[in-house]
Amino acid sequence: MKDIRTEQYPRGRNLQILDKPHFSSMIASAITARMEMLNRAMKHMQPGTPPPIGPTEEMVRLTALAKEIRQCRICIEHPDKGRALCHAPRPVFQLSASARICIAGQAPGIRAHESGIPFSDPSGVRLRQWLDIGEDIFYDARRIAILPMGFCFPGFDAHGGDLPPRPECARTWHAQLMAHLPHLQLLLLVGGHAQRWHLRRLHAAKELTRLGVNDTVMHWRSIYDSPAFTPRCIPLPHPSWRNSGWLNRNPWFESELLPELRQAVRALL
Fold first, then answer.
1. N or C: which end of the chain has fewer CB within 10 A?
2. d(CA 215, CA 29)
3. What is the DSSP letter of 10?
4. pLDDT tens digits, residue range 12-42?
């Protein structure tokens, strides 16, 4: 029987937590068994015969790392400043060693938390419109990784809005994850938390890492064209519909940035 717990949040909103089994260990075991079979087969191959296609060591390591993250309970057992997550962790992300595009967002919202699918909400609809791609491509982990700065829904604040991403995730996992994406060529920095963390990781000038979201996005051209950043980066505002006013006040975003963004995405799919 599923263990179902309900936590009380501001404005009387209830959050239902479903503890579902994960299949990461099964996947890792299957990949390991496949590699052992391939190794045995290669011992009997004639010289000059091309090796069979199978999982790489990078895939195995990434699968093991993803399993660790899905089982992570740092924000419960060792929370930052003693403030534990107020519901059961449910990391939401997607990745593959073959991904050439990575969407670095903030943290899952309540709908993504409940579905277990990143950007399964109106913000995701707008983001896919910005990228000019459908769900079939957006959710193809072989092409697009989705790695929010906080893997779990952080909960609601006193006013009913989402809290900031938990700091434990970036500190514990993100450097490892980025090292396991060898084919990454485009990094989409969605929101201030992702922009600051990744620009610092890429050793951007301090002046750039201290800018707010508005100013960072306004510098998108210099960031995207900079040879100092590998992979190339495009900063974006959060696609929340609450930002519609900002988009109306900044028409250059749609007329200048979005065409370049769509062209960059198409070139890598």
1. N
2. 47
3. G
4. 444 444 444 444 555 455 555 555 654 554 4
